[in-house]
Structure formats: structure tokens, C-alpha cells
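User: Glycosyl transferase. Structure?
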Amino acid sequence: MESKQYLTFVIYGHDLTYYQGARFGILSFLANWHGKNRPQVVVLTEETEHFDDLPILVIPITSEQKNDWSLGNNYHFRIKNRGLKYISKYINLQPEDKLVFLDTDTYFTQATNIYFDSITSKKALMYFPEVKINDLPESNEYAIIRNKNHLLADGSSYRVTDKSTMWASAVIGVTGSMINSLDYADMLITTLRENGCRAHTLEQYALSEALSRDVELVAAKSWLNHYSTSGRKDWGRKVLQRFFAQYGQLSFEEQIERAKKVSFARPLSEVIRGHIYKKKKKLLALFKNTSSK
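Assistant: Predicted structure:
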């Protein structure tokens, strides 16, 4: 049986930019797909109405699931982990199948086949390696989990090593045979939180550790574009709103063609405005800290 390829997104919350970002991410990814057999697109989402007109598989997130997956709304980044596991069961992901997850603030300008082509039984994708945990200062949120053994729910023990590296998870690419790593990562998330770690990036660190036990991690950073920083996100929101106002009523294939020509490059005036905004934030923070002393 031929293996299948799935392009997936997990979206929750009520910010329209997330939903428009995912829609455009789908269009942009397919606009740069070379070949006949496109991946099946699967969106797990809290607000399904944003995708009703697209020829994709849309799976709803219920309020009960959102509450459970976010640990009672205490750690919403866990929704990504539990959501991907839910998708894999929903689509009956087989060991030889390939699944690529993307954050909603990503877009593409080069051939996207490379994502699936780079996933093998021994290689998984993540965005890029950010930092080794043991290299972080003692003031960092991860310092609390170092130099100790952590007993996991399955009876095994986890300990940070000199190789323990946090990879960013804007991209995740795995085969069906690697899906159990999501469960191991989830054990790390819940255990390390119980043991005092409140880092918001715990979801991606846990998955990095889980996957690297069995496979090599490959960085997808050079293949992808994003508008995740505050200045870029403000401009990206405007680009998305303008795109869907102009072309949102066109057919799916026509929107894919239009997506090829969209630029997220900021004009100089926006870049300057972004720098001024950052400086104002730093000055306000400095003034606040000084005033509190």
C-alpha cells in the first residue's frame, strides 16, 4: 500500500490572524508544490467556519478537549501535542505515512516537496535547534529541571544531559511510526511542570527530547518564511486581510495561484515603525523597573 502524506495545522483561540494565516499557509504550501500528488490537508481547529469552503479535512476541537489538552487552561501550548496525536488517530495514520505540521505564521517561496522528501524512518523534521539546556544560565526557567532525575508516569526516569537540546517546533515532520514520541513528550511536559518548570516552550523541548531518542532531527528553517516577530506579525496581519478581501471569494485553485505573488516584505516605513515600537517598550520597561525600586 502506498504511503500517504498529510499537511496539518492545529488552531485555537479567537484571533482571526491565526485562521487567515493557516488558510494562507495552505495556499502558499500548495502553490509551491511540485508534482501531481498533493498532500492531504488536515486542520484541527476551534473555529471550523473559517475553512468550510476549502476542499480539506476539517476536524473540530471541542471545549472539553481544549480544557483537557491545556491542563485546565494552564498550559495551552500542550494543545499542539495532544492535537497532533488526535489527528493521527482520526486519520488512522499508518507507520509508513508522513505528517507535516506547520505553525500558522508560516509561508513558502520555494519547492515544498522537500518537507516530505526529507522525512524518513530515521529522520524527523523540526524548525531549528535553539539552545542546549545545560548552556542556559541559572536564572533561566529550565535550570530547575537540571541535575536531577524525573520519574515519569510509565515508571521510567528522565534526566537532562549535555546533549539535551531544545528545537523550535514551528515545523514538525514525522512518520506514523514516530507518533508514540508525542506520548513520551507529553509525559515530559506534565512531569516537568509538576516538578516546577513553567517555561512556555516546554512543549517543543519535550518533543525534541522525545524524537531525538530514536531518530535524527533535521532543521527545516532554511526552507520556510515566517512573520512571527511583533513587527512582522503586525504587517503580516495587514497582508493577510488584504489578500482575503481581494481574493477570498475565488475558487481554491485560483487562490493558490494568487498566493504565489504575495509578498510579506515590509516597506521601510513599517520597519522603522517597528524599531520605534521596540525601543518604546524597552524604555517603558526600564522606567517601570526604576520606579519600583
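Residues 188 and 194 are 10 Å apart (CA to CA). The mean pLDDT is 92.
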